[in-house]
Amino acid sequence: MTLTELQGQRRWVLWRLEKNKDGKDTKRPYQLCGRLAACNTSSTWATFAECQAIFDSGGFSGLGMVLGNGVVGVDIDGCVTDGQFSRESREIVIALNSYSELSPSGTGSHTWGLATLRDRKGIKQPHPGCKAVEVKAEGFFHTFSGRHLSKTPADLMPMQAAVDALYTKLTQRTRLVIAAPKDEQERFDKLWAGDLSDYDGDASRGDLALCCILVRRCRNNFFEIDKQFRKSGLYRDKWEREDYASATILKAIQANRLSVEPAALDEDSPAEWTLEPLQGREEGWFPLGEVSLVGGPSGAGKTHVLIKIAECVRHGIASFGHRTCAREYGILLHDRSKASMRRTCRASKLPVEDVMSRVVRLTKDQQKGVPADIVEAAILNQPNVKLWILEGLDFWTPELHKLDKVGDVLDALQRVATAHRVAIVGTLGSPKQKEHDRYASGRDQFMGSVAFGRKSETCISISRTSDKNVRKMAVYTRNTGDEEFYTTWNETGLVLTTKPEDYDKDAELTTAAHKMEMNVFAACHPGDELRYAKHFGPAATFFRWRRIAEAAGKVVKTAKKWYRTAQPDNATPTTRP
Q1: Domain membership of residue 204 as a residue range
Q2: Which residue has the higher pLDDT, 311 or 250?
Q3: Are 452 and 410 in contact (CB under 8 A)?
Q4: What angle do CA 168, 174, 176 make, to 5 degrees?
Q5: 247 with 352, same domain?
Q6: How far is Cα 449 from Cα 132, in angstroms, rounded to an integer?
Q7: The domain boundary residue, chosen from 198, 226, 255
Q8: Burial of 550 (0-12, 13-18, 19+ CB in 10 A)
Q9: pTM for the whole thing?
Q10: What is the distance in angstroms between the CA of the first residue and the CA of the last residue of the chain?
Protein backbone atom coordinates (compact mmCIF):
# COMPACT_ATOMS: atom_id res chain seq x y z
CA MET A 1 0.00 0.00 0.00
CA THR A 2 1.43 3.40 -0.94
CA LEU A 3 1.38 6.35 1.43
CA THR A 4 -0.87 8.18 -1.02
CA GLU A 5 -3.38 5.33 -0.91
CA LEU A 6 -3.27 5.37 2.89
CA GLN A 7 -3.88 9.13 2.95
CA GLY A 8 -6.94 8.65 0.77
CA GLN A 9 -8.57 6.41 3.39
CA ARG A 10 -10.89 7.83 6.05
CA ARG A 11 -8.63 7.02 9.00
CA TRP A 12 -7.07 10.42 9.73
CA VAL A 13 -7.57 12.76 12.68
CA LEU A 14 -6.14 16.00 13.99
CA TRP A 15 -4.34 16.12 17.33
CA ARG A 16 -3.39 18.70 19.89
CA LEU A 17 -0.78 18.50 22.69
CA GLU A 18 -2.61 19.13 25.97
CA LYS A 19 -2.27 18.51 29.71
CA ASN A 20 -4.12 15.60 31.26
CA LYS A 21 -5.56 15.61 34.77
CA ASP A 22 -2.15 14.71 36.19
CA GLY A 23 -0.53 17.66 34.48
CA LYS A 24 1.35 15.52 31.96
CA ASP A 25 1.46 16.25 28.24
CA THR A 26 -0.81 14.04 26.14
CA LYS A 27 -1.80 13.95 22.46
CA ARG A 28 -5.58 14.13 22.07
CA PRO A 29 -7.26 13.28 18.71
CA TYR A 30 -9.81 15.70 17.26
CA GLN A 31 -12.46 15.63 14.52
CA LEU A 32 -12.78 18.19 11.74
CA CYS A 33 -15.58 19.86 13.70
CA GLY A 34 -13.30 20.48 16.69
CA ARG A 35 -14.76 17.79 18.93
CA LEU A 36 -12.70 14.94 20.35
CA ALA A 37 -12.29 11.97 17.99
CA ALA A 38 -12.46 8.34 19.08
CA CYS A 39 -9.99 5.79 17.73
CA ASN A 40 -12.67 3.10 17.83
CA THR A 41 -15.35 5.13 16.02
CA SER A 42 -14.75 5.55 12.28
CA SER A 43 -17.41 8.23 11.91
CA THR A 44 -15.06 10.63 13.73
CA TRP A 45 -12.27 10.17 11.17
CA ALA A 46 -11.55 11.88 7.84
CA THR A 47 -9.13 11.74 4.92
CA PHE A 48 -5.65 13.23 5.11
CA ALA A 49 -6.57 16.02 2.68
CA GLU A 50 -9.64 17.00 4.72
CA CYS A 51 -7.58 17.21 7.91
CA GLN A 52 -4.79 19.11 6.22
CA ALA A 53 -7.25 21.68 4.84
CA ILE A 54 -8.24 22.93 8.32
CA PHE A 55 -4.99 22.17 10.17
CA ASP A 56 -3.64 25.73 10.23
CA SER A 57 -6.91 27.38 11.20
CA GLY A 58 -7.73 25.15 14.15
CA GLY A 59 -4.68 25.61 16.37
CA PHE A 60 -3.83 21.93 16.15
CA SER A 61 -0.42 20.39 16.74
CA GLY A 62 -0.53 17.97 13.82
CA LEU A 63 -2.25 15.15 11.95
CA GLY A 64 -2.58 11.55 13.06
CA MET A 65 -3.31 8.17 11.46
CA VAL A 66 -5.67 5.70 13.15
CA LEU A 67 -4.23 2.20 13.31
CA GLY A 68 -6.09 -1.05 12.73
CA ASN A 69 -8.09 -2.31 9.74
CA GLY A 70 -5.04 -4.18 8.48
CA VAL A 71 -2.41 -1.63 9.56
CA VAL A 72 -0.13 -2.20 12.57
CA GLY A 73 2.08 0.54 13.98
CA VAL A 74 5.34 0.19 15.90
CA ASP A 75 6.37 3.20 17.99
CA ILE A 76 9.95 3.29 19.27
CA ASP A 77 10.18 6.04 21.87
CA GLY A 78 13.40 7.82 22.78
CA CYS A 79 15.60 5.93 20.32
CA VAL A 80 17.15 8.94 18.54
CA THR A 81 19.85 11.19 20.00
CA ASP A 82 21.25 14.08 17.95
CA GLY A 83 19.65 12.57 14.85
CA GLN A 84 21.27 9.17 15.40
CA PHE A 85 19.46 5.89 16.02
CA SER A 86 20.59 3.45 18.69
CA ARG A 87 21.80 0.07 17.46
CA GLU A 88 18.89 -1.84 19.01
CA SER A 89 16.21 0.42 17.54
CA ARG A 90 17.90 0.37 14.14
CA GLU A 91 17.70 -3.44 14.14
CA ILE A 92 13.95 -3.29 14.86
CA VAL A 93 13.26 -0.80 12.06
CA ILE A 94 15.31 -2.79 9.54
CA ALA A 95 13.62 -6.08 10.50
CA LEU A 96 10.15 -4.58 10.05
CA ASN A 97 11.12 -3.42 6.52
CA SER A 98 8.16 -1.12 5.95
CA TYR A 99 7.41 2.61 5.78
CA SER A 100 9.06 4.37 8.72
CA GLU A 101 9.40 8.00 9.74
CA LEU A 102 10.75 10.11 12.55
CA SER A 103 8.21 11.12 15.18
CA PRO A 104 7.27 14.83 15.26
CA SER A 105 9.62 15.35 18.23
CA GLY A 106 12.53 13.83 16.30
CA THR A 107 13.45 11.56 19.22
CA GLY A 108 11.50 8.46 18.17
CA SER A 109 10.18 6.64 15.12
CA HIS A 110 6.97 5.17 13.79
CA THR A 111 6.78 2.17 11.45
CA TRP A 112 3.53 1.29 9.69
CA GLY A 113 2.90 -1.93 7.81
CA LEU A 114 0.28 -4.39 6.66
CA ALA A 115 -0.46 -6.85 9.46
CA THR A 116 -2.78 -7.58 12.39
CA LEU A 117 -2.22 -8.38 16.06
CA ARG A 118 -4.15 -11.65 15.67
CA ASP A 119 -6.67 -10.68 18.41
CA ARG A 120 -3.85 -9.81 20.83
CA LYS A 121 -3.82 -6.58 22.80
CA GLY A 122 -1.39 -3.83 22.00
CA ILE A 123 1.86 -4.02 23.95
CA LYS A 124 4.35 -1.52 25.37
CA GLN A 125 7.62 -2.67 26.91
CA PRO A 126 10.96 -1.11 27.91
CA HIS A 127 13.71 -2.07 25.50
CA PRO A 128 17.49 -1.57 25.25
CA GLY A 129 18.48 1.44 23.17
CA CYS A 130 15.23 3.35 23.77
CA LYS A 131 12.64 4.21 26.39
CA ALA A 132 10.03 1.75 25.14
CA VAL A 133 8.68 -0.12 22.12
CA GLU A 134 4.94 -0.14 21.41
CA VAL A 135 3.14 -2.45 18.99
CA LYS A 136 -0.44 -1.24 18.49
CA ALA A 137 -3.39 -1.60 16.12
CA GLU A 138 -7.13 -1.10 16.74
CA GLY A 139 -8.04 1.62 19.23
CA PHE A 140 -4.88 3.72 18.82
CA PHE A 141 -3.46 6.40 16.53
CA HIS A 142 0.03 7.55 15.58
CA THR A 143 1.06 11.12 14.96
CA PHE A 144 2.25 11.84 11.42
CA SER A 145 5.39 13.83 10.57
CA GLY A 146 6.10 12.89 6.96
CA ARG A 147 9.83 12.74 7.78
CA HIS A 148 10.41 9.46 5.96
CA LEU A 149 13.48 7.43 6.92
CA SER A 150 15.00 7.18 3.46
CA LYS A 151 16.62 3.78 4.04
CA THR A 152 13.21 2.17 4.63
CA PRO A 153 10.55 1.35 1.98
CA ALA A 154 8.43 4.27 0.80
CA ASP A 155 5.29 2.09 0.96
CA LEU A 156 3.50 0.11 3.66
CA MET A 157 4.78 -3.44 3.22
CA PRO A 158 3.47 -6.79 4.49
CA MET A 159 5.17 -7.34 7.87
CA GLN A 160 3.08 -9.96 9.67
CA ALA A 161 6.01 -12.26 10.40
CA ALA A 162 8.16 -9.40 11.67
CA VAL A 163 5.35 -8.09 13.91
CA ASP A 164 4.76 -11.57 15.36
CA ALA A 165 8.47 -11.97 16.09
CA LEU A 166 8.71 -8.55 17.74
CA TYR A 167 5.55 -9.11 19.77
CA THR A 168 6.89 -12.45 21.04
CA LYS A 169 10.23 -10.88 21.90
CA LEU A 170 8.59 -8.09 23.89
CA THR A 171 6.28 -10.41 25.81
CA GLN A 172 9.14 -12.74 26.75
CA ARG A 173 11.50 -10.03 27.98
CA THR A 174 12.46 -10.28 31.65
CA ARG A 175 13.77 -7.41 33.66
CA LEU A 176 17.48 -7.73 34.36
CA VAL A 177 18.76 -6.90 37.80
CA ILE A 178 22.27 -5.49 37.63
CA ALA A 179 24.20 -5.14 40.84
CA ALA A 180 25.97 -1.84 41.29
CA PRO A 181 29.69 -2.56 40.71
CA LYS A 182 32.60 -1.04 42.53
CA ASP A 183 34.12 2.08 41.12
CA GLU A 184 35.29 1.13 37.64
CA GLN A 185 38.64 2.90 37.87
CA GLU A 186 39.42 1.10 41.12
CA ARG A 187 38.61 -2.27 39.56
CA PHE A 188 40.56 -1.41 36.44
CA ASP A 189 43.67 -0.39 38.35
CA LYS A 190 43.69 -3.65 40.31
CA LEU A 191 43.10 -5.83 37.27
CA TRP A 192 45.67 -3.89 35.24
CA ALA A 193 48.20 -4.64 37.92
CA GLY A 194 47.28 -8.35 37.82
CA ASP A 195 45.43 -8.30 41.15
CA LEU A 196 42.71 -11.00 41.14
CA SER A 197 41.67 -10.61 44.79
CA ASP A 198 38.17 -9.46 43.80
CA TYR A 199 37.73 -12.65 41.77
CA ASP A 200 38.97 -15.27 44.24
CA GLY A 201 42.17 -15.64 42.23
CA ASP A 202 40.23 -16.91 39.19
CA ALA A 203 42.31 -15.69 36.25
CA SER A 204 39.63 -16.43 33.64
CA ARG A 205 37.04 -14.34 35.51
CA GLY A 206 39.58 -11.57 35.88
CA ASP A 207 40.42 -11.67 32.16
CA LEU A 208 36.75 -11.28 31.27
CA ALA A 209 36.25 -8.47 33.78
CA LEU A 210 39.20 -6.51 32.41
CA CYS A 211 38.01 -7.07 28.83
CA CYS A 212 34.55 -5.76 29.78
CA ILE A 213 36.14 -2.50 30.89
CA LEU A 214 38.41 -2.35 27.86
CA VAL A 215 35.40 -2.87 25.57
CA ARG A 216 33.94 0.44 26.74
CA ARG A 217 37.25 2.28 26.72
CA CYS A 218 38.26 0.93 23.29
CA ARG A 219 34.71 1.32 21.90
CA ASN A 220 34.35 -2.35 20.92
CA ASN A 221 37.58 -2.37 18.88
CA PHE A 222 38.53 -6.05 18.95
CA PHE A 223 42.14 -5.47 17.92
CA GLU A 224 42.71 -2.57 20.32
CA ILE A 225 41.26 -4.59 23.23
CA ASP A 226 43.70 -7.39 22.45
CA LYS A 227 46.59 -4.93 22.18
CA GLN A 228 45.80 -3.26 25.52
CA PHE A 229 45.21 -6.54 27.35
CA ARG A 230 48.70 -7.68 26.39
CA LYS A 231 50.08 -4.67 28.28
CA SER A 232 48.27 -5.60 31.51
CA GLY A 233 49.47 -7.62 34.45
CA LEU A 234 46.95 -10.35 33.55
CA TYR A 235 48.68 -11.19 30.27
CA ARG A 236 50.11 -14.72 30.27
CA ASP A 237 50.84 -17.59 27.87
CA LYS A 238 47.20 -18.70 27.83
CA TRP A 239 46.28 -15.47 26.04
CA GLU A 240 48.31 -16.68 23.04
CA ARG A 241 45.69 -19.37 22.50
CA GLU A 242 43.64 -17.77 19.74
CA ASP A 243 40.45 -19.58 20.78
CA TYR A 244 40.74 -18.35 24.38
CA ALA A 245 41.61 -14.73 23.64
CA SER A 246 38.97 -14.37 20.91
CA ALA A 247 36.24 -16.01 22.96
CA THR A 248 36.97 -13.80 25.99
CA ILE A 249 36.96 -10.56 23.98
CA LEU A 250 33.82 -11.50 22.05
CA LYS A 251 31.98 -12.42 25.22
CA ALA A 252 32.87 -9.01 26.65
CA ILE A 253 31.71 -7.24 23.50
CA GLN A 254 28.42 -9.11 23.49
CA ALA A 255 27.86 -8.25 27.12
CA ASN A 256 28.35 -4.58 26.44
CA ARG A 257 25.31 -2.86 25.00
CA LEU A 258 27.17 0.22 23.79
CA SER A 259 26.30 1.23 20.24
CA VAL A 260 29.63 2.23 18.74
CA GLU A 261 28.30 4.16 15.78
CA PRO A 262 24.51 4.61 15.72
CA ALA A 263 22.98 5.03 12.29
CA ALA A 264 21.24 8.09 10.94
CA LEU A 265 18.45 6.34 9.04
CA ASP A 266 16.78 9.48 7.79
CA GLU A 267 19.55 10.99 5.69
CA ASP A 268 23.08 10.47 4.44
CA SER A 269 25.98 12.31 6.04
CA PRO A 270 29.78 12.15 5.81
CA ALA A 271 29.58 9.37 8.42
CA GLU A 272 27.80 7.22 5.81
CA TRP A 273 30.91 6.94 3.64
CA THR A 274 34.11 4.96 4.00
CA LEU A 275 35.83 7.52 1.76
CA GLU A 276 34.08 10.86 2.18
CA PRO A 277 32.71 12.87 -0.78
CA LEU A 278 34.99 15.35 -2.50
CA GLN A 279 34.12 19.01 -2.11
CA GLY A 280 31.12 19.86 -4.25
CA ARG A 281 30.04 16.22 -4.64
CA GLU A 282 27.25 14.39 -2.88
CA GLU A 283 28.68 10.87 -2.87
CA GLY A 284 31.85 9.27 -1.59
CA TRP A 285 33.00 5.66 -1.91
CA PHE A 286 31.78 2.48 -0.22
CA PRO A 287 28.80 3.77 1.82
CA LEU A 288 28.00 2.03 5.09
CA GLY A 289 24.92 -0.15 4.81
CA GLU A 290 25.56 -0.90 1.12
CA VAL A 291 27.29 -3.43 -1.15
CA SER A 292 30.03 -2.21 -3.54
CA LEU A 293 32.32 -3.91 -6.07
CA VAL A 294 35.88 -3.81 -7.36
CA GLY A 295 36.42 -5.65 -10.65
CA GLY A 296 39.20 -6.39 -13.08
CA PRO A 297 41.13 -9.20 -14.78
CA SER A 298 43.35 -11.50 -12.76
CA GLY A 299 46.60 -9.78 -11.86
CA ALA A 300 45.27 -6.27 -12.50
CA GLY A 301 45.80 -5.24 -8.88
CA LYS A 302 42.33 -5.33 -7.31
CA THR A 303 43.65 -6.56 -3.97
CA HIS A 304 46.55 -4.09 -3.96
CA VAL A 305 44.11 -1.20 -4.34
CA LEU A 306 41.63 -2.48 -1.75
CA ILE A 307 44.22 -3.19 0.94
CA LYS A 308 45.81 0.22 0.37
CA ILE A 309 42.39 1.84 0.81
CA ALA A 310 41.61 -0.32 3.87
CA GLU A 311 44.89 0.57 5.58
CA CYS A 312 44.29 4.27 4.94
CA VAL A 313 40.80 3.91 6.42
CA ARG A 314 42.17 2.07 9.46
CA HIS A 315 44.50 4.99 10.19
CA GLY A 316 41.98 7.66 9.22
CA ILE A 317 44.23 9.17 6.53
CA ALA A 318 43.31 10.36 3.04
CA SER A 319 43.02 7.82 0.23
CA PHE A 320 42.89 8.73 -3.46
CA GLY A 321 42.23 12.34 -2.47
CA HIS A 322 39.27 11.48 -0.21
CA ARG A 323 39.23 12.03 3.53
CA THR A 324 38.45 8.98 5.66
CA CYS A 325 37.17 8.31 9.16
CA ALA A 326 39.27 5.78 11.12
CA ARG A 327 37.47 2.43 10.98
CA GLU A 328 38.46 -1.22 11.23
CA TYR A 329 38.33 -3.61 8.29
CA GLY A 330 38.22 -7.37 7.77
CA ILE A 331 38.95 -9.58 4.74
CA LEU A 332 37.25 -12.87 3.85
CA LEU A 333 39.34 -14.91 1.39
CA HIS A 334 37.56 -17.21 -1.02
CA ASP A 335 39.66 -17.35 -4.20
CA ARG A 336 43.20 -17.13 -2.85
CA SER A 337 45.39 -18.40 -0.02
CA LYS A 338 46.84 -16.57 2.95
CA ALA A 339 50.31 -17.07 1.44
CA SER A 340 49.15 -15.24 -1.68
CA MET A 341 47.78 -12.43 0.46
CA ARG A 342 51.12 -12.14 2.27
CA ARG A 343 52.93 -11.77 -1.04
CA THR A 344 50.50 -9.04 -2.06
CA CYS A 345 51.13 -7.18 1.20
CA ARG A 346 54.90 -7.40 0.74
CA ALA A 347 54.66 -6.21 -2.86
CA SER A 348 52.48 -3.28 -1.74
CA LYS A 349 54.95 -2.44 1.06
CA LEU A 350 52.14 -2.73 3.61
CA PRO A 351 52.50 -4.05 7.20
CA VAL A 352 52.10 -7.77 6.60
CA GLU A 353 51.19 -8.87 10.11
CA ASP A 354 48.76 -5.99 10.66
CA VAL A 355 46.92 -6.90 7.47
CA MET A 356 47.03 -10.67 8.02
CA SER A 357 45.57 -10.32 11.53
CA ARG A 358 42.42 -9.06 9.77
CA VAL A 359 42.27 -11.86 7.18
CA VAL A 360 40.01 -14.92 7.44
CA ARG A 361 40.48 -17.77 4.97
CA LEU A 362 37.11 -19.41 4.38
CA THR A 363 36.85 -23.15 4.99
CA LYS A 364 35.49 -25.49 2.32
CA ASP A 365 32.13 -25.62 4.09
CA GLN A 366 32.00 -21.83 4.32
CA GLN A 367 32.83 -21.52 0.63
CA LYS A 368 29.79 -23.67 -0.11
CA GLY A 369 27.57 -21.70 2.27
CA VAL A 370 25.28 -18.74 1.60
CA PRO A 371 27.50 -15.63 1.36
CA ALA A 372 25.17 -13.44 3.43
CA ASP A 373 25.07 -15.98 6.28
CA ILE A 374 28.86 -16.31 6.42
CA VAL A 375 29.38 -12.56 6.26
CA GLU A 376 26.83 -11.95 9.01
CA ALA A 377 28.58 -14.52 11.23
CA ALA A 378 31.86 -12.69 10.65
CA ILE A 379 30.22 -9.36 11.53
CA LEU A 380 28.79 -10.76 14.76
CA ASN A 381 32.21 -12.18 15.55
CA GLN A 382 33.90 -8.81 15.07
CA PRO A 383 31.21 -6.15 15.57
CA ASN A 384 33.68 -3.26 15.47
CA VAL A 385 34.69 -3.95 11.85
CA LYS A 386 32.91 -1.54 9.51
CA LEU A 387 34.53 -2.42 6.17
CA TRP A 388 34.31 -6.04 5.01
CA ILE A 389 36.20 -7.09 1.87
CA LEU A 390 34.99 -10.28 0.15
CA GLU A 391 37.82 -11.58 -2.03
CA GLY A 392 36.40 -13.64 -4.91
CA LEU A 393 32.67 -12.88 -4.74
CA ASP A 394 32.27 -14.31 -8.25
CA PHE A 395 33.57 -17.70 -7.03
CA TRP A 396 31.02 -17.54 -4.22
CA THR A 397 28.02 -16.80 -6.45
CA PRO A 398 26.09 -19.74 -7.94
CA GLU A 399 24.94 -19.53 -11.58
CA LEU A 400 27.02 -16.44 -12.15
CA HIS A 401 25.35 -15.36 -15.38
CA LYS A 402 21.73 -15.56 -14.19
CA LEU A 403 20.22 -12.23 -13.27
CA ASP A 404 17.86 -13.58 -10.61
CA LYS A 405 20.49 -15.76 -8.89
CA VAL A 406 23.04 -12.96 -8.71
CA GLY A 407 20.28 -10.59 -7.60
CA ASP A 408 19.35 -12.91 -4.72
CA VAL A 409 22.98 -13.03 -3.49
CA LEU A 410 23.37 -9.24 -3.65
CA ASP A 411 19.98 -8.57 -2.05
CA ALA A 412 20.84 -10.85 0.88
CA LEU A 413 24.23 -9.18 1.33
CA GLN A 414 22.51 -5.80 1.13
CA ARG A 415 20.15 -6.73 3.99
CA VAL A 416 23.13 -7.78 6.12
CA ALA A 417 25.02 -4.57 5.31
CA THR A 418 21.98 -2.46 6.19
CA ALA A 419 21.15 -4.35 9.38
CA HIS A 420 24.68 -4.02 10.77
CA ARG A 421 25.55 -0.73 9.05
CA VAL A 422 28.76 -1.95 7.48
CA ALA A 423 30.28 -1.45 4.04
CA ILE A 424 30.63 -4.72 2.10
CA VAL A 425 32.99 -4.65 -0.88
CA GLY A 426 33.28 -7.69 -3.12
CA THR A 427 35.95 -8.34 -5.74
CA LEU A 428 35.08 -9.80 -9.15
CA GLY A 429 37.01 -10.99 -12.14
CA SER A 430 36.50 -9.64 -15.63
CA PRO A 431 36.14 -11.72 -18.78
CA LYS A 432 39.48 -13.10 -19.93
CA GLN A 433 41.44 -10.43 -21.76
CA LYS A 434 44.57 -10.34 -23.79
CA GLU A 435 46.90 -7.54 -22.85
CA HIS A 436 45.40 -4.08 -23.51
CA ASP A 437 41.95 -5.41 -24.52
CA ARG A 438 38.89 -3.59 -23.31
CA TYR A 439 35.62 -5.36 -22.74
CA ALA A 440 32.72 -3.13 -21.79
CA SER A 441 32.26 0.20 -20.10
CA GLY A 442 31.11 1.44 -16.72
CA ARG A 443 29.12 -0.83 -14.45
CA ASP A 444 28.51 -3.47 -17.14
CA GLN A 445 32.03 -4.84 -17.40
CA PHE A 446 32.09 -7.20 -14.42
CA MET A 447 32.17 -10.96 -14.83
CA GLY A 448 28.72 -12.55 -14.87
CA SER A 449 25.29 -10.97 -14.77
CA VAL A 450 24.83 -7.23 -15.21
CA ALA A 451 23.08 -7.39 -11.84
CA PHE A 452 26.50 -7.05 -10.21
CA GLY A 453 27.02 -3.53 -11.48
CA ARG A 454 23.38 -2.48 -11.43
CA LYS A 455 22.65 -3.57 -7.85
CA SER A 456 25.84 -2.24 -6.24
CA GLU A 457 26.75 1.23 -5.04
CA THR A 458 30.37 2.23 -5.63
CA CYS A 459 31.83 0.23 -8.53
CA ILE A 460 35.55 0.34 -9.29
CA SER A 461 37.04 -1.07 -12.49
CA ILE A 462 40.75 -1.79 -12.73
CA SER A 463 42.22 -2.51 -16.17
CA ARG A 464 45.56 -2.75 -17.91
CA THR A 465 46.99 -0.05 -20.16
CA SER A 466 49.59 0.10 -22.92
CA ASP A 467 52.25 0.33 -20.19
CA LYS A 468 52.47 -3.06 -18.52
CA ASN A 469 53.34 -1.38 -15.18
CA VAL A 470 50.40 1.04 -15.19
CA ARG A 471 46.76 0.30 -14.35
CA LYS A 472 43.70 2.40 -15.02
CA MET A 473 41.26 2.70 -12.10
CA ALA A 474 37.77 4.00 -12.92
CA VAL A 475 35.37 4.75 -10.03
CA TYR A 476 31.62 4.83 -10.69
CA THR A 477 29.34 6.19 -7.98
CA ARG A 478 25.57 5.98 -8.19
CA ASN A 479 24.58 9.60 -8.77
CA THR A 480 27.67 11.81 -9.15
CA GLY A 481 30.44 12.08 -11.70
CA ASP A 482 32.98 9.30 -12.23
CA GLU A 483 36.61 9.49 -11.13
CA GLU A 484 39.66 8.17 -12.96
CA PHE A 485 43.15 7.30 -11.68
CA TYR A 486 46.29 5.64 -12.98
CA THR A 487 48.45 3.59 -10.62
CA THR A 488 51.82 1.91 -10.68
CA TRP A 489 54.26 0.31 -8.27
CA ASN A 490 57.59 1.65 -6.98
CA GLU A 491 59.83 1.09 -3.98
CA THR A 492 57.14 2.50 -1.65
CA GLY A 493 54.33 0.32 -3.00
CA LEU A 494 51.22 1.28 -5.00
CA VAL A 495 51.30 4.96 -6.06
CA LEU A 496 49.44 7.27 -8.42
CA THR A 497 50.95 8.07 -11.80
CA THR A 498 49.98 9.71 -15.09
CA LYS A 499 48.15 8.19 -18.03
CA PRO A 500 50.46 6.58 -20.60
CA GLU A 501 50.72 8.91 -23.61
CA ASP A 502 49.81 6.24 -26.16
CA TYR A 503 47.15 4.51 -24.03
CA ASP A 504 44.07 5.82 -25.83
CA LYS A 505 45.47 5.11 -29.29
CA ASP A 506 46.79 1.68 -28.33
CA ALA A 507 43.58 0.63 -26.60
CA GLU A 508 41.56 1.91 -29.55
CA LEU A 509 43.51 -0.17 -32.03
CA THR A 510 43.10 -3.37 -30.04
CA THR A 511 39.41 -3.36 -29.27
CA ALA A 512 37.31 -6.38 -30.19
CA ALA A 513 35.48 -4.22 -32.73
CA HIS A 514 38.70 -3.35 -34.56
CA LYS A 515 39.76 -7.00 -34.66
CA MET A 516 36.37 -7.92 -36.07
CA GLU A 517 36.74 -5.27 -38.76
CA MET A 518 40.15 -6.58 -39.74
CA ASN A 519 38.78 -10.12 -40.06
CA VAL A 520 35.73 -9.09 -42.07
CA PHE A 521 37.55 -6.73 -44.45
CA ALA A 522 40.22 -9.35 -45.07
CA ALA A 523 37.51 -11.68 -46.38
CA CYS A 524 35.54 -9.26 -48.56
CA HIS A 525 36.08 -6.40 -51.01
CA PRO A 526 34.39 -3.00 -51.36
CA GLY A 527 30.84 -3.56 -52.58
CA ASP A 528 30.58 -7.11 -51.23
CA GLU A 529 27.60 -8.05 -49.09
CA LEU A 530 28.56 -8.60 -45.45
CA ARG A 531 27.37 -11.86 -43.97
CA TYR A 532 28.50 -13.31 -40.67
CA ALA A 533 30.94 -16.19 -40.81
CA LYS A 534 32.08 -18.19 -37.80
CA HIS A 535 35.78 -17.59 -38.49
CA PHE A 536 35.25 -13.83 -38.06
CA GLY A 537 34.84 -14.27 -34.30
CA PRO A 538 31.87 -14.02 -31.89
CA ALA A 539 28.54 -13.32 -33.60
CA ALA A 540 27.57 -10.71 -31.00
CA THR A 541 30.76 -8.78 -31.73
CA PHE A 542 30.09 -8.96 -35.49
CA PHE A 543 26.63 -7.43 -35.22
CA ARG A 544 27.81 -4.79 -32.76
CA TRP A 545 30.71 -3.88 -35.07
CA ARG A 546 28.35 -3.72 -38.08
CA ARG A 547 26.19 -1.10 -36.37
CA ILE A 548 29.25 0.97 -35.46
CA ALA A 549 30.78 0.57 -38.92
CA GLU A 550 27.53 1.71 -40.51
CA ALA A 551 27.54 4.85 -38.39
CA ALA A 552 31.16 5.47 -39.42
CA GLY A 553 30.33 5.11 -43.12
CA LYS A 554 32.32 1.92 -43.63
CA VAL A 555 29.18 -0.15 -44.18
CA VAL A 556 25.99 0.78 -46.00
CA LYS A 557 22.56 -0.80 -45.60
CA THR A 558 20.32 -1.34 -48.63
CA ALA A 559 17.07 -3.34 -48.63
CA LYS A 560 17.87 -5.04 -45.31
CA LYS A 561 21.34 -6.04 -46.49
CA TRP A 562 24.69 -4.59 -45.55
CA TYR A 563 27.55 -3.92 -47.97
CA ARG A 564 31.14 -2.81 -47.58
CA THR A 565 31.66 0.70 -48.92
CA ALA A 566 34.54 1.81 -51.10
CA GLN A 567 36.27 3.40 -48.05
CA PRO A 568 40.08 2.82 -48.19
CA ASP A 569 41.45 -0.04 -46.13
CA ASN A 570 43.71 2.34 -44.20
CA ALA A 571 40.81 4.38 -42.88
CA THR A 572 40.61 5.07 -39.19
CA PRO A 573 39.70 1.82 -37.35
CA THR A 574 36.21 1.48 -35.96
CA THR A 575 35.87 2.18 -32.23
CA ARG A 576 33.08 1.90 -29.75
CA PRO A 577 31.41 5.28 -29.12
Answers
A1: 184-255
A2: 311
A3: yes
A4: 145
A5: no
A6: 45
A7: 255
A8: middle
A9: 0.51
A10: 43
